[in-house]
Fold:
Amino acid sequence: MTAYGDEALIVCDSLVRIYQVEKIEVQALQGLDLLVDRGEMVAIVGASGSGKSTLLNILSGLDAPTAGRVRVGEWDLLDMSAKQRLAYRRSMVGFIWQQTARNLLPYLSVAENVALPMSYARMPRADRRRRVGDLLEVLGMGGKAHRRPKELSGGEQQRAAIAVALANDPQVLFADEPTGELDSQTGGAVFDALRSANTELGTTVVIVTHDAEVSSQVQRTVAIRDGRTASEVLRHEEVDEWGDASVIAREYAVLDRAGRLQLPAGYRSALGLRGRVRLELEEDHVGVWPGEAREAVSDER
Ligand code: ADP
Ligand code: MG
Structure:
């Protein structure tokens, strides 16, 4: 028998992250499961405080979970020495943060920023120069190589940040609300740059976003609620009998490994579902009914 997520590039299995602030515990992740396949571009959405950044910090090797299992490629993120963690962060993954200033060193030019991770990885000088040029070209930043970050617009800074993140040809890019500080048009260009990394370079991309426009343009959107994967929207293109293509989106609830399922708030309120509910196994589905009120049960006796 194969284990959970054996085939996936990224496996989060029952991840728990508890922050202790003075005497108060905050459960940022409460048993989160997530699988991402190689080559996917996945959007992660969720209300503020739902645990999105916590998840990305863990996946990028900046933070460790309190419990659970997390693997990216060959890397078991719970079992890495400091040296391995550094190698993981330098070679396996790249990240782009929301705060544009956090992504680039202000006193280096764009080209120098992109070359820096390559020199850490001891890439020969000539290769470095060629690769910096290629990356900036792919990201539409070829003409801005010698500018300092402060001489760029917010959108250009984020595209430069993507080039830095891609410097050592990582297998995965993590982006935490990379378009959050940008207007929608500029944000669209940054999103397009991430998509080119995905389609042209084959990089797996996981992007946290508030932007419905962005999340509607990826094949899979994962919604996180209260530190758990709550639902997923899968999109695919369908061609009708007239040859017109349209994108079909379908929302799925996610059954976690313990068999838990979050019913959307709208469903719960529509039928007054809370506390005890009745479940019935049918031939091809499971029915959920409001539980009988306790008063009604005792009246019958
Ligand atoms: P999101 O990115 O979805 O807005 P976060 O992952 O930042 O959510 O936060 C999830 C929860 O964990 C929130 O309740 C937040 O206040 C808490 N949290 C995040 N980081 C810390 C921290 N360093 N210390 C204490 N609590 C934290
Ligand atoms: Mg966040």
